[in-house]
Write a structure and sequence with these properties.
The chain is of the alpha+beta class. The chain contains eleven helices and ten strands.
């Protein structure tokens, strides 16, 4: 997920995943699956994806840091199946390390929609999707703890909402960004982040959280309505503010009341932690997007920084 990136190019691959390797792994492990076609389907921080036979998506970790996320996603999604108001991936194939390839992988039917960061949003569309996001997260965060009892979900092991700890990296990132007309005042942003960083941590019972919720992990249909939520590798038991960062990183002020009507009330400290997370996410996305030339991601990051100050 996005949050574990240290400074520097942590997004360089450790393992090269080629079409030929994928063809070999699928032939070895899934004898019932005849591979007629294989095409590249995109690449994120941790995984590379291929489309098989025009309808199945297989995702392969390309670095050790992504191993646990892949295992967590496979376990966590199987525990959630059927209980949420918006679709989530339904994993049909669970692959194991084999030959020269050291990681587990998974495959599921291609999902409808396109990523929210590849879409130009107007304010009315953001207002319209707000209650769908609120209803989804309300259900997820009240999800039965069976997932926890089964040991399928860990707690937060990387201090995602340890705000003073995260402030250091955020200030470094903000200092490295070039001021521009597309960004809020970076000095004011850093000051606001410092103010937010003294917020009390979550003291409620840990909730089932997606853990890495932002525009690239929302798939929307042609009307810009919520279709599917993807990329569950950071799912864990933790602070709901992590997911509620969508309130301050994706939704303008005008949409927030509609989100909360669907989600339920959110206490002031949770709002503050969520806003801080939106800043961390925004700065990370701008820096990542600019370093790899991904304008959609950088744009989503700039939008998040803007909304985080509203």
């Amino acid at each position: 997920g996005v949050m574990i990136c240290a400074m520097g190019n942590t997004w360089d691959a450790e393992v090269e995943v080629t079409g030929a390797l994928v063809r070999e792994l699928l032939a070895w492990q899934f004898s019932g699956l005849t591979v007629d076609s294989i095409e590249s389907y995109g690449e994120g921080w941790d995984n590379v994806a291929f489309l098989i036979n025009g309808g199945l998506v297989f995702r392969f970790p390309k670095r050790e840091a992504a191993r646990q996320a892949m295992e967590q996603e496979t376990l966590g999604l199987s525990g959630l199946r059927g209980s949420l108001p918006a679709p989530i991936p339904h994993i049909h194939f669970v692959g194991q390390p084999q030959g020269g390839y050291p990681f587990p992988f998974n495959g599921y039917p291609e999902l409808p929609g396109r990523t929210a960061c590849s879409v130009d949003w107007n304010e009315a569309q953001r207002v319209a999707i707000a209650p769908e996001l609120g209803a989804f997260l309300s259900r997820l965060h009240s999800e039965d703890q069976e997932l926890a009892r089964g040991g399928a979900l860990p707690g937060d092991q990387i201090r995602r909402t340890d705000l003073p700890y995260r402030l250091v990296g955020l200030e470094e990132r903000l200092a490295q960004l070039e001021p521009s007309s597309h960004l809020p005042d970076l000095k004011a942003l850093a000051q606001r982040a410092r103010d937010l960083a003294i917020t009390e941590p979550w003291s409620g019972r840990p909730r089932v959280v997606h853990g890495d919720l932002y525009a690239r992990h929302l798939l929307v249909d042609s009307d810009q309505r919520l279709a599917v939520i993807i990329d569950w590798g950071d799912m864990h038991l933790g602070d709901p503010a992590l997911d509620l960062s969508i309130l301050f990183g994706f939704l303008p002020v005008s949409a927030r009341k509609r989100f909360e009507q669907a989600y339920g009330s959110i206490d002031a400290n949770t709002r503050r932690r969520a806003r801080f997370r939106a800043m961390v996410l925004g700065a990370t996305l701008v820096q990542y997007g600019e370093s790899v030339g991904d304008n959609d991601i950088a744009g989503a990051g700039r939008a998040a920084l803007g909304f985080s100050m509203e």
